[in-house]
């Protein structure tokens, strides 16, 4: 049984005088205990909104959330804010993109960590503070007792993100959502943070939803990968399957736009032209078709459905990569 | 030429060597800039001088300001007012009371009224701002409409109206009137900064950790939202001094004039302005200078705390 079941999750932003924007459109996926699931896509494809919807952190006004988010048998979307407050941090945690702005600048790090521990684990202030020091030590912050008394501006970017990870994992939640946790960091620090996340997740048995636009991160972390485009899942596969045989032209495009060590010297990267259209692109055709090299006439007429093409592999495309080859093989 | 340029660059580097950008908090860098700001130093000097004056004025004043010591020199008929003389450097007022002692002791009342009015105004404004900024929704709408109504009346007019509501005018009514005028200003300002905090990343991160609502408001939002309010409070002290003086001038201050207060001294001096301008000069000058002091400090703090001017 899955730890987290997301079914047909849709998020729409409704505004007066402006057309409704559909940010997430019928997304479904499962997260199994201890596994790492990736949500991949470029800016504006609905990754972050999906994670905020799961966490119940979307603003109430002007947002319509429908579908179902089920964590260990309890429906999260029906929780009141008060009930949700008791679950967040305890059963599910989140690490954000920018560690500088995600820490309170006027409260010492230690207090921010121990506040969470006090809140959810019912420890006394003293015990919570000792536990906070242990956690900071565990996430690789040297001299934790001193750091506890320091403010976020006195820490480096990497240390800040470590502190935030310590806070998110303080109560050993069953599920951790990491929303682009390395985007704001130096490349050298990125690797350290990813390794740390991997270790901690393995240690505590926490399931991880990794949200990223960085395929390198996906390749290093995820068991299963969902590729999102314009609010819908366009391809899902196990990591190795996805990287060895991308079927959706968008997935292939993402991979082609990443530099590789084994590509010939001087070869130019192949970017995907254009950008995600703002609103609603799935009416009357595939949203990706205007940017797609494989587009057929049918792509501009009706939107493709998400279909199971083989065990554990879903695809939403009229003309996937390799289709021609497969047909030839059949003949 | 090249040499001086290089030297300047190195000096610049040395100067910025202490602040490795991220290593200095907003408050610390603001304080460092304040210490070098002439505006701040002048303003702070003025304020310190007047506070000190208020504290030691009972010792400095040689005479009881309520006693009509020079009464025999006053003559209504030929408009005579005691001139400066040995023991009375500024002479007396129209009742023969020692002017210097009154000006000195007036500082106590004026500063006290301004301080109390601003503290009460700040307290009320904080309450409204926290309510509106923390809850949002209909609470916000309700509070802000009330604030808008209060702001739509010119502040002095509002203060005069409130002062006139009381049967018995006293220093207390002046404080209440001036404070009431300040409440919507602080309320509106704090509400704005609270709303900005509500949308900030670290509040979102705190909510993602299930931090209690109370802690979100008082630990994560309020301390971060207070900066501009503190600056405003400094500026409002100047306004409070002037407003309180204006109310006293208009006769809405303490009816009992034995306790001197600058605004009320100014008010009673207006009948003698053409013949004895010095009666108005001293209290008016003090009001202007002390209000200027608070304004200078407030302005320089605003500049120092402005993140756009950081470094």
What does this structure look like?
Chain A: It comes from Actinopolyspora alba. Chain A: This is Peptide/nickel transport system ATP-binding protein. The complex is a heterodimer of chains A (331) and B (311). Chain A is of the alpha/beta class. Chain A has 11 helices and 12 strands. Chain A has a single domain, classed as 3-Layer(aba) Sandwich (Rossmann fold). In chain A, α3 (109-121) runs parallel beside α6, α4 crosses α6 and α6 (157-168) runs parallel beside α7 (187-204). The model of chain A has no long low-confidence stretch (mean pLDDT 88). With 311 residues, chain B is mainly α. In chain B, α3 (38-60) crosses α12 (278-305) and α4 crosses α10. The model of chain B is unreliable at 12-23 (pLDDT under 50). The chains are: A alpha/beta (331), B mainly alpha (311). The interface between A and B is medium-sized, with 33 and 23 residues.
Q: Which assembly state applies to the chains in this document?
A: heterodimer
Q: Which regions of chain A have little confidence, pLDDT < 50, spanning 5+ residues?
A: none
Task: Name the overall outline of chain B.
Answer: elongated
Strand content of chain A: 15-25%
**What's the total helix number of chain A?**
11
């Amino acid at each position: 049984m899955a730890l987290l079941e997301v079914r047909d999750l849709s998020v729409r932003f409704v505004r007066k005088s402006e057309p409704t924007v559909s940010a997430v459109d019928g997304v479904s996926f499962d997260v199994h205990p201890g596994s790492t699931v990736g949500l991949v896509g470029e800016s504006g494809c609905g990754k972050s909104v999906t994670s905020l919807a799961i966490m119940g952190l979307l603003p109430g006004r002007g947002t319509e959330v429908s579908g179902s988010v089920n964590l260990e048998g309890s429906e999260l979307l029906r929780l009141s804010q008060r009930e949700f407050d008791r679950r967040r941090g305890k059963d599910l945690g989140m690490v954000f993109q920018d560690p500088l702005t995600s820490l309170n600048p006027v409260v010492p790090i230690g207090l921010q960590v121990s506040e969470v521990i006090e809140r959810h684990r019912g420890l006394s202030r003293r015990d919570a503070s000792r536990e906070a020091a242990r956690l900071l030590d565990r996430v690789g912050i040297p001299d934790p007792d001193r750091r506890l008394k320091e403010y976020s501006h006195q820490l480096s970017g990497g240390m800040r993100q470590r502190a935030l990870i310590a806070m998110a994992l303080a109560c050993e939640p069953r599920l951790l959502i990491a929303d682009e946790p390395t985007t704001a960091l130096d490349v050298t620090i990125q690797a350290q943070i990813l390794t740390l996340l991997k270790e901690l997740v393995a240690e505590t048995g926490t399931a991880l939803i990794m949200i990223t636009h960085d395929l390198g991160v996906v390749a290093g972390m995820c068991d299963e990968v969902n590729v999102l485009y314009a609010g819908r899942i366009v391809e899902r596969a196990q990591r190795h399957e996805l990287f060895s045989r991308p079927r959706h032209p968008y997935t292939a495009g993402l991979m082609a736009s990443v530099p590789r060590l084994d590509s010939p010297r001087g070869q130019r990267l192949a970017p995907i032209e254009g950008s995600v259209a703002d609103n609603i692109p799935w009416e009357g055709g595939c949203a990706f078709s205007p940017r797609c090299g494989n587009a057929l006439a049918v792509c501009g007429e009706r939107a493709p459905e998400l279909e199971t093409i083989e065990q554990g592999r879903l695809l939403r495309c009229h003309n996937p990569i390799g289709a021609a080859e497969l047909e030839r093989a059949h003949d | 030429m090249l040499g001086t340029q290089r030297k300047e660059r190195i000096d610049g580097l040395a100067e910025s060597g202490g602040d490795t950008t991220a290593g200095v908090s907003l408050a610390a860098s603001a304080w460092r800039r304040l210490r070098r700001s002439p505006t701040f130093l002048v303003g702070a000097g003025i304020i310190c001088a007047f506070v000190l004056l208020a504290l030691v004025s009972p010792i400095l004043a040689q005479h009881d300001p309520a006693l009509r010591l020079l009464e025999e020199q006053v003559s209504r008929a030929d408009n005579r007012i005691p001139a400066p003389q040995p023991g009375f450097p500024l002479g007396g007022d129209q009742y023969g009371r020692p002017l210097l002692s009154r000006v000195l002791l007036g500082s106590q009342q004026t500063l006290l009224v301004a301080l109390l009015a601003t503290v009460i105004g700040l307290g009320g404004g904080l309450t409204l701002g926290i309510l509106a900024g923390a809850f949002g929704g209909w609470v916000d709408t309700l509070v802000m409409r009330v604030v808008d109504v209060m702001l739509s009346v010119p502040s002095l007019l509002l203060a005069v109206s409130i002062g006139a509501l009381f049967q018995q005018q006293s220093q207390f009514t002046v404080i209440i009137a001036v404070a009431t005028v300040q409440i919507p200003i602080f309320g509106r300002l704090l509400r704005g900064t609270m709303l900005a905090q509500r949308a900030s990343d670290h509040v979102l991160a705190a909510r993602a950790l299930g931090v209690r609502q109370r802690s979100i408001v008082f630990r994560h939002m309020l301390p971060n939202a207070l900066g501009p309010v503190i600056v405003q409070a400094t500026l409002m002290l100047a306004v409070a001094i002037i407003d309180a003086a204006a109310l006293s001038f208009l006769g809405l201050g303490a009816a009992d004039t034995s306790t001197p207060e600058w605004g009320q001294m100014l008010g009673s001096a207006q009948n003698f302005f053409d013949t004895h301008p010095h009666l108005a000069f001293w209290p008016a000058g003090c009001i202007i200078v002390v209000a200027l002091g608070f304004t200078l400090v407030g302005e320089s703090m605003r500049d120092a705390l402005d993140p756009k001017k950081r470094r």
